[in-house]
Amino acid sequence: MLSYRFLTQRARTLLLACALSATMIAMSAPEAQANEVAQDNPFTHIESFANEIKDYVGAVADGAAERAAEEERAIRRQSVVDEAASHLGVPYVYGGTTPAGFDCSGFTRWVFEHALGMALPRTAAEQSALGEAVSLDEVLPGDLLFWGSGSGVYHVGVYVGDGEYIHASTGGGRIMRATFDYFAPSFAKRLVA
C-alpha cells in the first residue's frame, strides 16, 4: 500500500478536495438533517473513501511497477542478445571458453557472464537444468535453446528473436546465426525472469 507522500499531486488534490467537501457538507447540515446526510452522502465515510483511493492508486502503482520490471527484463534479455551477437564469426573450438574460440556451452557461459554477471555451469547438460522451461512457441530473446534431453543434452544456443538463434556451430566452424528451420531445438529455458 502506498503512503500519501507517494501519491501524485493530482491524486493528493483530489483526495483533499473530497475530504474537504465531505467536511463542509457535514458541517453545513442542520443537526436534524445530519443523520440523513450521513446516510445519503458517501463522502461522510471519508476513511473508507480514502482507503478506496489508496487502493486504486496502489493498483495503478502496482501496474506501473510491473511494467517497469518487464522493461528491466527486456533490457537484460537484449544485453544477452547483444553480447551473443558481438561474437559472430569467432571460431568454433572444442572445449573453448573465450573469444579466441568457443564451443557451444563455453559460448553461452561467456555470454551470460559478460551480459548479466550470471555464472552458468560448464556443459550444455548442466545449463539445461537451470531456469524456467518455456514452450518453443513462447521463447523470448535471451532464452537458451537446447538440443537433446536429460543427461543427453548435447548443444545449446541463445535465441535472438524471429525464429533465429546464435550458437557455436561445429558444422559452420564459428559462432553464427541459424534458424529453427535449419536446426530445430528440442526445448528452451528462460534464465532472465
From TrEMBL:
This is NlpC/P60 family protein. It comes from the Bacteria. GO terms for molecular function: cysteine-type peptidase activity. PROSITE patterns: NLPC_P60. One of its GO terms (biological process) is proteolysis. SUPFAM superfamilies: Cysteine proteinases. Keywords: Hydrolase, Protease, Signal, Thiol protease. InterPro entries: NLP_P60_dom, Papain-like_cys_pep_sf, Peptidase_C40. Belongs to the peptidase C40 family. Pfam families: NLPC_P60 (PF00877). It comes from Adlercreutzia muris. Residues 1-34 form the signal peptide. Coiled coil: none annotated. Residues 74-193 form the NlpC/P60 domain.
